[in-house]
Amino acid sequence: MAHTPGPWTVDETPENGRGEMGEIRIFAGSDDIAAAYYYELAEAPAAGANARLIAAAPDLLLALQMMCSVYDAVRPAIGVGARDTAESAIRKARGEC
User: Which secondary structure element, helix H or strand E, spans residue 25, and what is its range?
Assistant: First the structure.
């Protein structure tokens, strides 16, 4: 199964209405696709950072795929383990591992 196409964006306004619990929503266009939750107000900044990382996932996947496609030409500059790490992340993003 393919992921929801990007770009993904973050609504930086925490949704709060349950005491100190809340969520920060991630969108693909107008579709609400994910959330980062927090259970205390002190956790809201980390939840925002997690939401931004989630929202960057399609771009990160594309960047890794692009890097792997040119890896052999730039291998000496990148290092030996970089391609394995990138390909592992790509498989994980695709649900193949």
Answer: strand 21-28
> Rounded to 10 degrees, what is the CA torsion of 56, 47, 11, 88?
20
Residue 18, classified by CB atoms within 10 Å of its CB into exposed (0-12), middle (13-18) or buried (19+), is: exposed
- pLDDT tens-place string over residues 45-56: 888 888 988 998
What residue type is assigned to position 14 of the chain?
Answer: P
Distance CA(46)–CA(38), nearest Å, equals 8
Residue 4 C-beta-side C-alpha neighbours within 13 Å:
15
- The pTM for the full model equals 0.72
Write b or e for each residue in 55-91: b if 16 or more Cβ atoms lie within 10 A of its Cβ, otherwise e.
bebbeebeebeebeeeeeeeeeeeeeebbeebeeebe
Backbone angles phi, psi at 47, to 5 degrees: -65, -40
